[in-house]
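Input chain follows. Return structure tokens only.
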Amino acid sequence: MRAVMLSGPGPVSNLSVVEVPTPSPPPGWVRIRVRAFGLNRSELHTRLGLAEGVVFPRVPGIEATGVVDDPGDSSFTVGQQVATMMGGMGRTFDGGYAEYTVVPAAQVIPFVSELPWPAIGAVPETLQTAYGSLVTALDLRPGQTLLIRGGTSSVGLAAAALARDLGATVLSTTRSPGRFAALTAVGVTHPLVDDGSVAAQVRALFPDGVDAALELVGTPTLPDTLAATRVRGTVCFTGMLSNEWLVRDFYPIGYLPTGVRLTAYGGEASDLPPAVLQRFLDRIAAGEVTLGPVHTYAMDDIRTAHTDLERGTHVGKLVGLPLP
């Protein structure tokens, strides 16, 4: 089979398309014929040498969508549409940047959809992260206000759409006013220009601060996000678009505003219920919701894709296609 191989941490030139043996599933595992794989910041961190526990060379990719090719000893059937993500994919074992991937059956999620594969491939990990952050970590409720820091990322766009679907009022940031239309298209009521300090803008709209905030940029903006949140409100640290996630010399009493809660989210396939995935695929097909733009790349263009991922060239999700 053809696969993308990362020889080791470094520049995009360390990514190459190679021929490798098609893997066979050991007991408890399933082989998937990959039809689309999402590109994520996690894979960028792996390529830059920021991820722990990775053994090289490695086929990257923390997610994939496709059809079951060899169900092994599982209850899945050949040809069944499935998604998979996380669980060590692309780090401790080879991931989704390939024509076939072999993963534990426990992290395979079935679905049925007539959407094109690029659209399907953009959904699973993005939805899992956005859904878990809003529902599990923030416990977002109808009528609440939500600030999304890093709003034009794929997770930011998905979170805005989900939050509106939950009945929340959404504020979302971008560094470019030219991207306001992309935010309003997914249901953002108040797009904000992020110059590193948005708390004052938030409190001009909501003097007490927002009920909840989703931090997708990282530790450089986290103090300002906390300052934009009301007493007894909650901030969820989920993303690291800045590639910075450590708070140096953390002194909680000096760092955290009084009464503002800080939590975090990092989920697995088990955190995305099949019914939630199915519902959103159905709603996308019906035109009732969008998780944002999708930009596709052939497997042979993986270096271009990773360059665009690193530079933040596009608004929305980047998706790789193994088939020509």
